[in-house]
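Module 6 notes. Inverse folding takes a fixed backbone as the condition and produces residue identities as the prediction. Think of it as a translation problem where the source language is geometry and the target language is the twenty amino acids. Below is one complete input and output pair. Work through it position by position during the lab.
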């Protein structure tokens, strides 16, 4: 039975050499199972060691399940794929799919005001289809096209909008509740940085639109 100890330790060594965390956990499960068999087959089973190894096996099996779920192919609808290309190219499709879990889709009729100056805004939006215009008294309006963010300044600063936004035609929006989005991104610093970069790129593009106008 001593050979079981050697087999288990060889498998542990191999698991430490692989770079893929999934393979590391799989090899660890196999090694732990071999070691568990050794403890069980002893003339006097080592119940404490058996108990701890069962716990380790359960943890690794759970993590393997999570890893397999995360590696499933990402399936985005044509509308979602288009939005990804328009506004979230910096995110992988898997990261974007996670972001979509808390997104809401809404349709706005032509000439409908969906952002009002001075009124608190509880969400940040991205135009998926259609066009809108920013209306500021005494200033030329800025057209917002598919891929443009709406309400991003309120999201970043917490202040009320300083302009109205009106749909120039029937417009399709993807929106995220501000509080929920901030909480979600607060748990993932890398994803938060990428989303903020996308918002920053949009602000720069809008600045270019306004100067051109």
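Target side of the pair, the amino acids:
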């Amino acid at each position: 039975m001593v050979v079981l100890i050697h087999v288990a330790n060889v498998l542990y060594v191999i698991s430490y050499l692989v770079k893929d965390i999934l393979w590391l956990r799989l090899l660890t499960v196999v090694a732990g199972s071999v070691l568990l068999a050794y403890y069980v087959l002893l003339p006097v089973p080592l119940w404490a060691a058996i108990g701890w190894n069962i716990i380790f096996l359960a943890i690794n099996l759970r993590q393997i399940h999570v890893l397999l779920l995360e590696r499933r192919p990402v399936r985005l609808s044509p509308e979602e794929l288009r939005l990804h290309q328009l506004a979230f190219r910096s995110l992988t499709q898997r990261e974007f799919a996670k972001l979509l879990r808390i997104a809401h889709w809404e349709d706005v009729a032509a000439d409908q005001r969906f952002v009002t100056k001075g009124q608190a805004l509880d969400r940040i939006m991205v135009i998926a289809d259609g066009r809108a215009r920013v209306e500021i008294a005494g200033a030329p309006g800025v057209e917002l096209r598919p891929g443009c963010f709406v309400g991003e300044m309120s999201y970043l600063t917490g202040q009320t909008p300083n302009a109205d936004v009106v749909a120039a035609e029937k417009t399709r929006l993807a929106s995220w509740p501000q509080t929920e989005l901030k909480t979600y991104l607060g748990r993932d610093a890398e994803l938060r940085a990428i989303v903020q970069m996308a918002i920053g790129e949009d602000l720069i593009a809008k600045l270019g639109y306004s100067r051109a106008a």
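Reference fact for the lab report: The two ends are 82 Å apart (CA to CA).
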